[in-house]
């Protein structure tokens, strides 16, 4: 370094070709390092903020619907929250003949119809979800009653949090055949965290209308 300074001094401040190339090389390395750091920071930052579709939504347990009652609409998160229990069957929710296990727990159901993507709604008079576009109908848990929808409504991953908003171990949505099954209620839950960035497609189960021989 001292030699280089002496050499530059000896040349009356004129930079040699070799020194010029060193400077260019150093500047290139510095630019590359800056770009890499910027990309790393961008990658590590969360893509979506809490409360924004694509991110996590916090729902108070006070807002949870009663068991097998009409779903709660969460428009910002684009999901319906349902509370299911087929051990207490009623008009809204009961087991179908091909369902061997009881369906118990909370699920967050994506608000987009699995046919061509219309926004369906809960219809109180008929106790089911109905799509205004082509008439698909779904049970409270999102299973198809009538087509043309090709499959059950999609679901988001969820978990229960305690009063300090810490996750309660063992309450994360479980995958069965790559689909989130409802999460059973737990005593010390104060909130439900729904991750709208983690969605699983519903399966293609038998139409419920076929069991009653009532398909249109
Ligand atoms: S988009 Fe819902 S039935 Fe066609």
Q: What is the topological layout?
A:
Layout: H1 2-10, H2 17-44, E1 56-60, E2 72-74, E3 79-85, E4 104-110, E5 121-123, E6 128-130, E7 137-138, E8 144-146, E9 155-161, E10 174-176, E11 179-181, E12 191-200
Antiparallel strand pairs: 1-12, 2-3, 3-4, 4-9, 5-6, 6-7, 7-8, 9-12, 10-11
The structure holds FE2/S2 (inorganic) cluster.
| Class by SSE composition | alpha+beta
How would you describe the shape? elongated
Helix content: 10-25%
- Give the ligands present: FE2/S2 (inorganic) cluster
Distance between the termini: 87 Å
Query: How are strands sequenced across the largest beta sheet?
Result: 1-12-9-4-3-2
Radius of gyration from the alpha-carbon trace, in angstroms:
28 Å
Q: pLDDT below 50 for ≥5 consecutive residues: which ranges?
A: 1-10
Could you characterize the architecture of this molecule?
The protein is of the alpha+beta class and 216 residues long. The protein has 2 helices and 12 strands. It has a 6-stranded antiparallel β-sheet with strand order 1-12-9-4-3-2, with no helix packed on it. Strands 5-6-7-8 form a 4-stranded antiparallel β-sheet, with no helix packed on it. Bound molecules: FE2/S2 (inorganic) cluster.
């Amino acid at each position: 370094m001292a030699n280089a300074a002496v050499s530059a001094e000896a040349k009356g401040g004129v930079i040699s070709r070799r020194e010029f190339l060193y400077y260019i090389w150093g500047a290139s390395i510095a630019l590359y390092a800056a770009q890499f750091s910027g990309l790393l920071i961008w990658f590590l930052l969360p893509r979506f903020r809490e409360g924004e579709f694509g991110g996590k939504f916090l729902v108070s347990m006070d807002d949870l619907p009663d068991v097998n009652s009409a779903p709660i609409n969460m428009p910002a998160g684009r999901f319906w929250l349902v509370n299911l229990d087929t051990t207490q069957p009623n008009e809204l929710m009961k087991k179908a003949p091909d369902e061997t296990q009881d369906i118990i727990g909370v699920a967050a159901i994506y608000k987009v119809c699995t046919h061509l993507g219309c926004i369906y709604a809960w219809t109180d008079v008929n106790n089911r979800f109905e799509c205004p576009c082509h008439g698909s109908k779904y049970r409270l848990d999102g299973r198809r009653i009538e087509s043309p929808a090709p499959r059950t409504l999609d679901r988001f991953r969820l978990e229960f949090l305690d009063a300090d908003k810490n996750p309660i171990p063992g309450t994360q949505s479980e995958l069965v055949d790559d689909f989130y099954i409802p999460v059973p209620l737990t005593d010390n839950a104060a909130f439900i965290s729904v991750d709208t960035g983690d969605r699983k497609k519903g399966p293609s189960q038998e139409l419920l209308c076929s069991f009653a021989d009532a398909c249109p």
